[in-house]
Design a protein that fits this description.
single chain; 540 residues; alpha/beta; Rossmann fold; GMP Synthetase, Chain A, domain 3; 3 domains; 9-stranded mixed β-sheet; 8-stranded mixed β-sheet; 15 helices; 28% helix
Length: 540
């Protein structure tokens, strides 16, 4: 498609970003630490570490990995931990050693963890002690022989408690011991290049068996520069403070909150347990933060937490939403409280992650995912691969330097994931307006067919969420004798007086007939992934 969206770039956003072939995340981190050595890099539970300190600790860990475990360039190392100070120490050490980091959700079940360890073909894992019982359950059938444990208090000394490591695991070392020993060992530059893999970023599994998006240094550095180019003057090296509640093992926070802001010497405030909303708000109150990112459910949760509206938002520059659709009601309320609308963007694990963003700062709720970032081409296609025109809904397909080479050791899946001309198939139904803005209609698999009409659950959820009595909701399709499929809406109440009839009456006023839910079910909580995506498969 013609890049008609570039008319919105003006003279501030470049059409292309040019990344040197030798640019790596390791060199990006080294440069940032040299330039901002005395600046606070990360904060966790109120304790901080400077760039110089994190660099030294991570380099020590890299030396230990090389000398004690014999880690070589291209070896896979799993990292399984919530947001805490040990995460960046371990991550930048893994990267410096030339290994490929396998990001693992610390709340995985044994079955999920075993699949990922087997698929990544790794023999080494760095893991939060609280997750070690799951590792003990998952070990059989894996090649794991090296287990490095970490705690929430590592490198803090704040007395933060963590569960002990599972006693059945006998082949363990501690991260703090590793970094201490590594200080006396020789670090060897692994000779990284841009084409080397740096992360295996596993898809969330919401559409089937989890696959590892194999991302290169060039993919990541490109996306960092694409986002920075798009943000322009909204991002600076004058001391950005980024509230990071989305887990760092997720590609959104990993790149946008962490790696991008590391590149400009920002301070990343790590929130370990955002489900503790009062504690989350209390931590936010300690900072004059400049950036906030989150998914719709996180924004909505904060808005319903007492004390949030009393925080100091005077330094806030922009708020970014992604991971799932931002609802208009939530963005409007967020704007009332903070003075900023939520700037929605779109990304995938497979695209490192950012593909498109609305212009920053957002002046209003747009209902779109914005325009593609620099050096990015998009194509809206039908099921046969034919490109569609403006306003026509089809599969969003993407090409750019941030797009992965492919899934890890998944030849058949890669044939399905890419069109012959190299465009990645996103699996999302989208349309491009004549003005160059993209709108995601829904996941292709979530579409509901009602009497031959396509219905997209996001639209229904967005409308019903506008009701004052509704805290959150989720929509699925269910079998129906009369219409083939019908809509079932699951609703969490704010008001105990809310009835199914009230919801249906509201929907009838705001939606065409075939889009009105036929069934209403009240539930205590909408099931979500650890990063806040609604899990419609569980509702089904």
């Amino acid at each position: 498609m013609e890049r008609i969206w570039q008319k919105h770039y003006g003279d501030k956003i470049p059409a292309e970003v040019n990344i040197p072939a030798d640019a790596t995340l390791s060199s990006l981190f080294d440069t940032a630490c040299e330039k901002h050595a005395d600046r606070t890099a990360f904060s966790s539970f109120g304790a901080t570490r400077t760039y110089g300190e994190v660099h030294a600790l991570s380099r020590n860990f890299a030396a230990w990995l090389q000398n004690e475990l014999g880690i070589k360039k291209g070896d896979r190392i799993a990292l399984m931990t919530p947001n805490c100070m040990a995460f960046p120490v371990a991550m930048f050490g893994i990267i410096a050693a030339g290994a490929i980091q396998v990001n693992v959700n610390p709340l995985y079940t044994g079955r999920e963890l075993r699949h990922q360890l087997q698929d990544a073909d790794t023999d080494t894992i760095v893991i939060f002690t609280g997750s070690t019982p799951v590792l003990a359950e998952a070990l059989e059938g894996t090649k794991i022989k090296n287990i490095v444990t970490l705690t929430l208090d590592d490198y803090l000394g704040a007395g933060i408690p963590s569960p002990p490591a599972d006693e059945s695991l006998t082949i363990t070392s501690s991260l703090t011991d590793a970094t201490t020993k590594g200080a006396d060992q020789t670090f060897t530059d692994p000779g990284l290049t841009g084409s080397d893999y740096v992360f295996l970023q596993y898809t969330g599994g919401t559409t089937g068996l989890s696959k590892g998006a194999a991302l290169t240094h060039t993919n990541l550095v490109s996306n960092i520069e694409q986002i920075k180019a798009f943000l322009g003057e909204t991002i600076s090296e004058d001391g950005e403070i980024v509230i990071t509640a989305i887990p760092l093992y997720h590609i959104f926070a990993l790149v946008v909150n962490c790696l991008m802001y590391v590149s400009v010497g920002g301070t990343i405030v790590l929130i370990t347990n955002p489900r503790d909303m009062p504690g989350f708000v209390a931590e936010m109150g300690k900072w004059k933060f400049t950036v906030f990112t989150g998914v719709n459910t996180l924004y909505n949760g904060l808005l319903m937490t007492p004390g949030f509206e009393d925080l100091d938002f005077s330094a806030l520059r922009y708020c970014l939403g992604g991971g799932s659709a931002v609802q208009e009601a939530v963005s409007n309320r967020w704007n009332e409280v903070t003075g900023h609308h939520i700037c929605e963007g779109f990304g995938m694990s497979e695209t490192s992650p950012v593909v498109s963003v609305n212009l920053v700062p957002a002046q209003s709720f747009s209902g779109t995912i914005g325009i593609p970032v620099s050096s990015t081409d998009i194509s809206i296609r039908d099921e046969d691969g034919k490109e569609l025109g403006f306003g026509e809904a089809g599969e969003l397909c993407i090409k750019g330097p941030q797009v992965m080479p492919g899934y890890w050791r998944q030849d058949e899946a890669n044939k399905e994931a890419f069109w012959p001309d190299g465009y990645l198939r996103s699996g999302d139904v989208a349309e491009l307006s004549e003005d160059g803005f993209l709108k995601v209609v829904d996941r292709m698999k979530d579409m509901v067919l009602v009497s031959g009409f396509n219905v997209y659950p996001n639209e229904i959820e967005g409308v019903v969420a506008m009701m004052d009595e509704v805290a959150e909701c989720a929509c699925i399709g269910v079998p129906d004798d009369a219409t083939g499929e019908a809509l079932k809406l699951f609703v969490v109440k704010k008001d105990d007086g809310l009835t199914p009839e009230t919801i249906i009456e509201y929907a009838r006023k705001n939606l065409t007939g075939y889009k009105v839910p036929k069934q209403i079910a009240f539930i205590d909580e909408v099931p979500k992934s650890t990063v806040g995506k609604i899990l419609r498969r569980e509702l089904r």
